[in-house]
């Protein structure tokens, strides 16, 4: 927040500085008092008559004496003053703004104008007038071109992206372009309705500026109900007061509207609206310049508008900073959206590449799995087929072949069941019959069932299941997990080795560890130990289907648990089943 105060303070000081600098700069230009002497040097720079006398309602008089070196003058008149007794005035190009005034050196000239308040006029030499108004025309064309160009760009953006803020911006640019066009083609307006239209532009511009600032920053404006009615009523009151004939009231209301727009942007910067500073500083500049344009409307003796300030007011250049700031804000927003789109495209490409890689690896794994399945199916089938051929020629060999045939058929049965279970797990079609279970009792039952297999191989199977481990799960599937771990340990433990099954509680976790003294698993193989058909590179041929650990891990995850591995080559492995432990009270 501390980092935002400098820009807020700077923008306020910038507006105040521009206003004060304008007042000071305007005061540096001389004014010609009523009854004074107009010299050629003053006319060559342009000078504003000061001290008009109202000798009748709506009738204003001003007198001056032509200097010895003056022969002709150009008189510039604003659009609210009409000359009376204009025999000596020649309308230049029928504009109603510029008049040629022939004077005789030393002559006293009286100007009479009809106007509701003190007329705004300027006296200047013909050469100065020619240069000044050519410059004004050029700046007006520059301003008009800038507004129209920005309008075309925003219209194109709005055509392809119907966003409300772009509509607000387009409305603002249309108002500014229409105002610039009217001032350019009608420098002096005598018609009452046209004067009313011209006066309304300033109020429209202030309202459009506030609406544009709120729209671009995404501020919520009421769109229905009392909020909308209140907004419309407020805008209507502001517009009517901004059109008032009482100069202090009109100027005060319009200035308040501009400062309200500046306040909106300051509040947006303070609230952290992204990019609000891009509009705040240009708005501060434009607000300061617009105060310049309002000061002559006060009809106050402390600010008699000079020719340069009049030319600047007519050129509308002071409205460009805010419009350019808004344009930069819009361009920045679209640039950020484009960058975000590119980033999303890159992320999508990366995800597609990653997914393609995963699918390729999965396809390769499926191919490898199918080859292993075919191999494991073919070997016992060949054994059974050969045994049947032997029995066909030598029936007396049945007692010798029967154990081997039974072993092969049993392997085929286990392989088929494991494949079927693995497929159901992969398709998430396995349903658990969950209930309260004691994991230590399930481990004891599994060890009892596997004891004969361990004894046949000469492996010592030891159990430590004194700790009560209540869990929530499917008792049959829990035993299947533990049986896969224990039988896997028996297969990989050589004769004379030992297997320790230990039940314990760790915090809120029930743990059953199966530790063997087998060959162990190399570090490079440990990451794939739960993959389908994994066989450690150090193992010997046995009757494992290669799916036991995969099935055990998937079943553990269905129970919201997992199986972890610790192994060291030559010293054995520890597989630990971890499941959420139930409270005793549950």
UniProtKB/TrEMBL annotation:
Residues 372-583 form the Histidine kinase domain. InterPro entries: HATPase_C_sf (IPR036890), HATPase_dom (IPR003594), His_kinase_dom (IPR005467), HisK_dim/P_dom (IPR003661), HisK_dim/P_sf (IPR036097), Sensor_HK_Regulatory (IPR050736), Sig_transdc_His_kin-like_C (IPR004358). PROSITE patterns: HIS_KIN (PS50109). Its EC number is 2.7.13.3. It catalyses: ATP + protein L-histidine = ADP + protein N-phospho-L-histidine. One of its GO terms (molecular function) is kinase activity. It holds the Pfam family HATPase_c. The chain crosses the membrane at residues 138-158, 170-189, 201-219, 226-243, 249-269, 276-298. Keywords: Kinase, Membrane, Phosphoprotein, Transferase, Transmembrane, Transmembrane helix, Two-component regulatory system. SUPFAM superfamilies: ATPase domain of HSP90 chaperone/DNA topoisomerase II/histidine kinase, Homodimeric domain of signal transducing histidine kinase. PANTHER family: HISTIDINE KINASE 1, TWO-COMPONENT HISTIDINE KINASE. This is histidine kinase. It comes from Faecalibacterium butyricigenerans.
